[in-house]
Amino acid sequence: KAGVTQTPRYLIKTRGQQVTLSCSPISGHRSVSWYQQTPGQGLQFLFEYFSETQRNKGNFPGRFSGRQFSNSRSEMNVSTLELGDSALYLCASSLVGQGVDEQFFGPGTRLTVL
Amino acid sequence: AQSVAQPEDQVNVAEGNPLTVKCTYSVSGNPYLFWYVQYPNRGLQFLLKYITGDNLVKGSYGFEAEFNKSQTSFHLKKPSALVSDSALYFCAVRDVGNDYKLSFGAGTTVTVRA
Question: What's the start-to-end Cα distance of chain B, in Å?
Answer without folding.
Answer: 41
